[in-house]
Design brief:
Layout: H1 3-22, H2 49-65, E1 77-81, H3 88-99, E2 104-108, H4 109-113, H5 120-137, E3 140-145, H6 162-175, E4 184-190, H7 198-201, E5 208-211, H8 217-227, H9 233-242, H10 248-265, H11 271-278, H12 282-305, E6 309-316, E7 322-328, H13 335-356, H14 370-383, H15 399-402, H16 406-427, H17 430-443, E8 445-447, H18 448-455, H19 474-483, E9 487-490, E10 493-496, H20 497-501, H21 508-519, H22 530-543, E11 550-552, H23 553-564, H24 570-576, H25 579-603
Helix pairs in contact: 1-10, 5-6, 8-9, 8-10, 10-11, 12-13, 12-17, 13-14, 13-16, 14-16, 19-25, 21-22, 21-23
Length: 604
């Protein structure tokens, strides 16, 4: 074998050795530093509420073991929720290392399922064996990964397997009874708790759910220092700040791959190269971070201005996303509070629009995104809470049932109005928003006094402030006609407002002209559509008319032409000749006819 082949073989062997030592642990290698079975919680490294809580659980377990604490005074079970790669399994292995193999059982739903081809009987037996082993090892930790596989018994997705899942969850509930598990700490881990059967999450099973946040610069520096002990701590701290929000697993994986490259190429490890591997392209980096910082600070400022609770942390992810973590206060559940929550959710998108003149896709993209959350709340207002334009209604709808028609229009309108209100909140704090975002782009993570100093400058916002909705639907226009007592006369014929709508441009376009003129006289939304402005103006113009007022169509047209000649109506002149207005007029006529047909059927 040549020297080159020997060198290659040794390099691959080294790589394989490091891979085996590190796989499936998250922050690989750290647990090697802690002697097994020491019960020394200082060996459970990590920064954040989850790590603090777990360390306290171990301290309490040792106190029970030593006879210094009653078991009834201990909170023995938690679920840790977090994105993949955040270190949930790593934390469990750290605890297992501290307690020792003789005092730990680390398993997962996949382990149970693989025990016998997924057959219910063998799966349940494997699950029972894990609980039995933990009880026999007490004092002990039982860690169960992928616990979100135990989805709700009411989950429609189970289909024909409903009895299988019901039997499995009932068996789990029978085992997971803390009153029969003295001396056992139970930690469940998952990516999303929302689908777990509610009975599993109640007190007496899992007492608390904690969210494993992505790490801040302090924790990342700790990770890098352990992996790269020969590098300068100041350089590591600088890189850690740049990588804030990246998952421990991604950082560990990148370090291992780069170490392998350095061995092959006989070069030194470079933190700058690590940054290049994990961060966005340099030419786009600053623009991405600026947008993300504005987005997250927008959420924080709106939450503070609306008095929704306590903003605890604002963080930017290395790859170009982030979050503003808030602890919402208890509410009465009235419509004003729900609209305030919608406003806070839409404030990230509004901050981008206000300061950069454009919106990105960052508010959408997943069922946990801002737009998804806003849609869920707005839809619930219409179909679950009985507080929307549809009235006192409860309906469990699938997406296809509401994506079109009046409910869809109402949902979109409420979200759009929340977005406009968010713009109003942030426009009153624009300088603060820009300065705070610039600071966040520098430090990457804000909490404690640094965050509070910024938020103390936010003035409370009055939710009763008048806001023009940025959208208007044709359905809404016709509905307003129904609610109006105004009648229209043409020659010797009188007609209700809805009947007049069927005439198309003869009545509708003059009303739009008048609405557009008066809509722009008030504080119109900065991003309101022309139709929304028309609607707002129409309401203003007709508000002062007497009950059952009669408007002559001839005079209506003449007055609208008088307004159209004014300079501020130049934009609407162009719109009238476009396809959008013509299409809207046609749709309004169709909605009006449909409304009349439905009424005639009801009266028959």
């Amino acid at each position: 074998m040549s020297a080159t082949d020997q060198e290659k073989k040794l390099s691959i062997a080294d790589d394989m050795k490091e891979w085996r030592e590190g796989r499936d642990i998250g922050l690989k290698g750290t647990t090697e530093d802690a002697p097994a079975g020491t019960w020394d919680v200082s060996a459970i490294t990590g920064v954040g509420d989850v790590y603090d809580h777990v360390r306290q659980m171990v301290v309490d377990l040792k106190a029970w073991k030593d006879g210094d604490l009653a078991w009834g005074d201990i909170s023995p079970s938690i679920i840790i929720e977090g994105a993949p790669g955040t270190g949930k399994t790593y934390l469990a292995r750290q605890v297992g290392k501290v307690l020792g193999e003789e005092n730990s059982v680390i398993t997962s739903f996949a382990d149970w399922q693989s025990s016998g081809k997924g057959h219910l009987g063998t799966l349940i037996q494997a699950m029972k064996d894990s609980f039995k082993e933990a009880r026999n090892k007490a004092p002990a930790i039982l860690f169960i990964d992928e616990i979100d596989s135990l989805s709700s018994r009411e989950n429609e997705g189970h289909g024909n397997n409903d009895s299988y899942w019901r039997g499995l969850i009932n068996a789990f509930l029978a085992e997971m009874d803390v009153s029969t598990m003295e001396g056992v700490l139970v930690i469940g881990a998952c990516n999303d708790v929302s689908g777990i059967d509610p009975a599993i999450l109640r007190d007496g099973r899992f007492d608390e759910t904690l969210y494993m946040e992505l790490p801040g610069p302090e924790f990342i520096a700790q990770i890098l220092q352990k992996k790269l002990p020969d590098l300068d701590p100041d350089d590591i701290a600088k890189t850690a700040r740049m990588l804030t929000g990246e998952t421990p697993a991604a950082i560990d994986g990148a370090v291992r791959k780069m170490k392998a490259e350095c061995r092959r190429k006989k070069t030194d490890f470079s933190l700058a190269a690590l940054e290049e591997r994990l961060l966005p392209d340099p030419e786009m980096r600053e623009a991405i971070w600026k947008r993300v910082s504005l987005h997250e600070c927008g959420h924080a400022i709106a939450g503070k201005a609306l008095g929704l609770g306590t903003v605890e942390r604002v963080l930017m992810h290395a790859q170009g996303s982030g979050f503003a973590q808030s602890r919402l206060k208890s509410t009465e559940g009235v419509i004003e509070e729900l609209d305030a929550r919608l406003t806070m959710i839409m404030a990230g998108r509004a901050a981008e629009e206000l300061c950069l003149g454009s919106k990105s896709s960052g508010a959408g993209g997943s069922d946990k995104s801002d737009l998804a959350k806003a849609t869920q709340i707005a839809l619930a207002i219409e179909t679950r809470y009985g507080m929307g334009e549809t009235g006192a209604l409860y309906a469990k709808l699938k997406d296809a049932d509401w994506h079109f028609g009046p409910i869809s229009d109402s949902v979109k309108k409420r979200i759009a109005t929340a977005g406009e209100r968010a713009l109003d909140v942030l426009s009153k704090n624009r300088v603060l928003l820009c300065d705070m975002a610039e600071d966040l782009a520098t430090c990457r993570s804000m909490d404690g006094h640094r965050l509070q100093d910024w938020l103390d400058q936010v003035a409370p916002y009055d939710m009763s402030a008048d806001i023009v909705s940025p959208i208007m639907t044709c359905y809404e226009f016709v509905t307003a006609m129904v609610e109006s007592s105004v009648r229209f006369s043409n020659m010797k014929t009188r007609a209700s407002a809805v009947s007049a709508m069927r005439s198309g441009d003869e009545v509708v376009i003059p009303l739009m002209r008048i609405g557009y003129f008066y809509g722009n006289k008030r504080k119109a939304a900065s991003n309101a559509s022309w139709a929304a402005v028309c609607m707002a103006g129409y309401k203003i113009a007709t508000k002062g008319l007497p009950q059952n007022a009669v408007m002559k169509v001839r005079e209506l047209v003449s007055f609208s032409e008088f307004l159209l000649a004014k300079d501020e109506m130049a934009k609407f002149k162009e719109l009238e000749d476009g396809e959008e207005v013509k299409r809207a007029v046609k749709e309004i006529g169709q909605y009006a006819q449909m409304r009349i047909n439905l009424q005639e059927r009801a009266d028959a």
